[in-house]
Amino acid sequence: MIIYGKQLFLHLLEKHKEKLINIYLAKDIEKDIFNKIVKSGVKIHKVDNKKAQALARGGNHQGFLAEVCEFEFASLNEIKKQDFLVVLYGLSDVGNIGSIVRTTYALGGGGVIMISKSASMEGIIRASSAAAYELPITLVSDGLSLLNELKQLGFKIYGSDAKGKNPSECKFGKKTVLVMGSEGEGIPRKALEKCDENLGINMREGWDSLNVSVAFGILFDRIMNG
């Protein structure tokens, strides 16, 4: 798996150098950064821009690229020990997923569960600005069974829905799950029926939707901070 971009690269070098397999540099870099790279003990390769562009698949690598270990998903049992969980139902856009992961970590969430059999973690890691490495994330294929299990563990489940309650009308406990659906279809009906409450965002008349990661950030903050 290839990651690229200066800030993402430096984050891994600083906090997760054990995940670095090979480092690719496509330009001369600051002496202090180069010294840190050398001290990491990871093999360094100098490459031209053509090679770097190929590794980054045309992305903005800024001269910093690395081959890293495959992403290690957390176990569901580990995530269930956390208090505030996020469940993503049907989301496929790595930009939105990465943004949600970043917001979850930044605002104090406990973990992210994606209802999916697979995920493009290269894009999610980049879009999350490396927050994906700081937060337990897992994949679950059966969303309905998951929601049932979380309810049995004492979690109260809130679904995002355009017709849902204003979060200010709800009293949130410690063990909370926020479910987000895809922009196109939202949360599937059967999953929405599993939710204890549905939450919405009041908007101007004639305006009924927001980007899913933006809507998530608003709902998450209102749940956490009122």
From TrEMBL:
The keyword Membrane does not apply. GO terms for cellular component: cytosol. Keywords: Methyltransferase, Transferase. InterPro entries: Alpha/beta_knot_MTases, Ribosomal_eL30-like_sf, rRNA_MeTrfase_TrmH, SpoU_MeTrfase, SpoU_subst-bd, tRNA_m1G_MTases_N. One of its GO terms (molecular function) is RNA methyltransferase activity. Pfam families: SpoU_methylase, SpoU_sub_bind. The keyword tRNA-binding does not apply. Residues 2-74 form the RNA 2-O ribose methyltransferase substrate binding domain. GO terms for biological process: methylation; RNA processing. It comes from the Bacteria. This is 23S rRNA (Guanosine(2251)-2'-O)-methyltransferase RlmB. It comes from Campylobacter fetus. The gene is rlmB.
